[in-house]
């Protein structure tokens, strides 16, 4: 029997680099859990926009702000960034911000910077500014919010769908959706995932005719990426601050003081240890593919036997007997079938 101390089946754990990437730059931002809950006014902003902040986040979703009024000749510049790539809990959010080329200088003057270098209040203020009518006239934004359950599902399936592929596909989906809505994007700036040159070449092949720049630390180089970074960060923080457990009986039992969510944060590790159910593991806020989670489950939780894993192993052994080596290698005493001795090559010219 196959025995594992896991509530899910980690056929492969994610690379440790996925968890620690960006630790130095991301943990500088105050974790959202330092506020017990977002204020009703903060929550109302998201609800009025139509984002499901007050609902259990079990499925990923895409959201677009109202589009600016445009003439077909208007050209746009677009930035892409993410929030929540490394944490062991909560969603990963990819965001775009796009504006008319003629409005870019004005948007840049609003004070956008890398969201991780801003205070929570500054991020909230800038995000609210993006919703104002005068700014909406020249710009818009969108997000792809990937639920922790979907992240676990992708990374724990037998044919692993890794975090980089998930990130690339989220970006590509947002770009395609923006273009499909009639936004005439001519320039794109993206904070890289993986080697910039390889990623840029991939995107240029998918979006010919658009000038694409993929760079490290693009969120600190290009204001349009900084604006996207704020949309991603504020949305992720809002989900965590107002997290609704799909496991409803846990809503008032588990602490929502998660720390930053990064595996290197002692407060996050404390939450993981204190919130562990020895039989059922963790609620759906957790990314079960993270090795931090895997290790705690292996060390602390009771063993679980998966019958289908045992069945798959048995079936694999049964199937292997049909692919044994030829006579003489494994069964030297076994006689060769007479079928091969009786058959001779046929001259098709004579036969026909």
Description:
The protein is α/β, with parallel strands linked by helices and 352 residues long. Helices cover 40% and strands 13% of the residues. The protein contains 16 helices and eight strands. The strands form two sheets. It has a six-stranded mixed sheet. The chain has a two-stranded antiparallel sheet with strand order 1-8. Helix 5 (120-130) packs across helix 11 (223-241). It is globular and about 75 Å long. 36% of the residues are buried. Residues 1-30 have low confidence and may be disordered. InterPro entries: RNase_H2_suA, RNase_HII/HIII, RNase_HII/HIII_dom, RNase_HII_hlx-loop-hlx_cap_dom, RNaseH-like_sf, RNaseH_sf. Its cofactor is Mn(2+); Mg(2+). It catalyses: Endonucleolytic cleavage to 5'-phosphomonoester.
Features:
two-stranded antiparallel ribbon, 352 residues, six-stranded mixed β-sheet
Shape: globular
Instruction: Give the strand tally.
Output: 8
Described by strand count, sense and barrel closure, the largest sheet is: 6 strands, mixed
Q: Strand pairing plus helix content: what structural class?
A: alpha/beta
Low-confidence spans: 1-30
Strand portion, in percent? 5-15%
The helix tally amounts to 16
Strand order of the largest sheet: 2-5-4-3-6-7
What's the alpha carbon Rg, rounded to whole Å?
26 Å
Domain RNase H type-2: 75-302
EC number: 3.1.26.4
Cofactor: Mn(2+); Mg(2+)
Binding site for a divalent metal cation: 81-82, 191
């Amino acid at each position: 029997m196959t025995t594992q101390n896991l509530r899910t089946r980690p056929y492969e754990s994610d690379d440790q680099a996925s968890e620690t990437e960006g630790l130095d730059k991301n943990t500088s931002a105050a974790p959202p859990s330092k506020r017990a809950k977002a204020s009703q006014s903060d929550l109302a902003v998201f609800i009025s926009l139509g984002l499901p902040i007050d609902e259990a986040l079990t499925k990923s979703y895409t959201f677009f702000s109202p589009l600016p009024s445009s003439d077909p000749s208007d050209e746009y510049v677009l930035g892409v960034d993410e929030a929540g790539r490394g944490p062991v809990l909560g969603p990963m959010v990819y965001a775009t911000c796009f504006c008319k080329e003629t409005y870019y200088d004005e948007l840049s003057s609003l004070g956008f910077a890398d969201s991780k270098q801003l205070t929570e209040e500054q991020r909230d203020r800038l995000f609210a500014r993006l919703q104002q009518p005068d700014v909406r006239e020249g710009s818009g934004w969108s997000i792809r919010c990937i639920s922790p359950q979907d992240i676990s599902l992708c990374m724990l399936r037998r044919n692993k769908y890794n975090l980089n592929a998930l990130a690339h596909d989220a970006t590509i989906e947002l770009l395609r959706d923006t273009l499909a809505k009639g936004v005439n994007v001519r320039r794109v700036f993206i904070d890289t995932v993986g080697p910039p040159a390889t990623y840029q070449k991939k995107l240029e092949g998918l979006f010919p005719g658009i000038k694409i720049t993929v760079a490290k630390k693009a969120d600190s180089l290009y204001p349009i990426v900084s604006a996207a970074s704020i949309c991603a960060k504020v949305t992720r923080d809002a989900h965590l601050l107002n997290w609704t457990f799909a496991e409803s009986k846990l809503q008032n039992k588990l602490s929502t003081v998660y720390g930053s969510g990064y595996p290197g944060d002692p407060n996050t590790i404390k939450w993981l240890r204190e919130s562990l159910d020895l039989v059922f593991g963790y609620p759906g806020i957790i990314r079960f593919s993270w090795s931090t989670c895997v290790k705690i489950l292996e060390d602390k939780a009771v063993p679980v036997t998966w019958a289908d894993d045992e069945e798959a192993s048995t079936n694999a052994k049964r199937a292997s007997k049909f692919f044994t080596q030829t006579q003489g290698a494994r069964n030297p005493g076994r006689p060769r079938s007479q079928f091969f001795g009786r058959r001779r090559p046929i001259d098709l010219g004579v036969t026909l």
